[in-house]
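Entry
Fold in token form

___
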Amino acid sequence: MRRSAPLSVAVQATLRRGVPSARRISGWARAATGARGRGAELVVRIVGLAEGKRLNLGWRRKDYATNVLSFPPVASGARHVARVWPRPLGDIVICAPVVAREARAQGKTLEAHWAHLVVHGALHLLGYDHERESEAVRMERRERRVLAVLGLPDPYAVPQGAGVAR
């Protein structure tokens, strides 16, 4: 049966330095989406500062590169998503230089921060959000659970001696 296929993840990297393998990224995305990702297709695009800034400006009207952006299939132009096979889950764009800078500033390992941002982006595609406090609590709880299953630390805990990036 087609619907039992695992989440299909395509990783597109415009740069490679400091970027986890496609296999790692796929595993983190599958852990985040769980059963809801089965039979779906996800694209994760790794970009540099210029593309990250251009996308954030174009979609969010913010003139800087951000760590992660999520684009549901409707935002990327797909019509009649329920009838398409495999079902498009959406696209995640991660800006590698921002991830590296944040990991250093927050005293986190690069792998843990990458995993968190892949999970965070995938959860946005499943409908999680953090615009209101109640939504943020729900999303952060899910992120913590997924990352704990992966053997990774709580992304919201501040390591001793580390400053919080603002």
User: Anything to note?
Assistant: The chain has one domain: 2-149. Residues 19 and 155 are 18 Å apart (CA to CA). The longest helix spans residues 133-149. DSSP finds five helices and four strands in the chain.
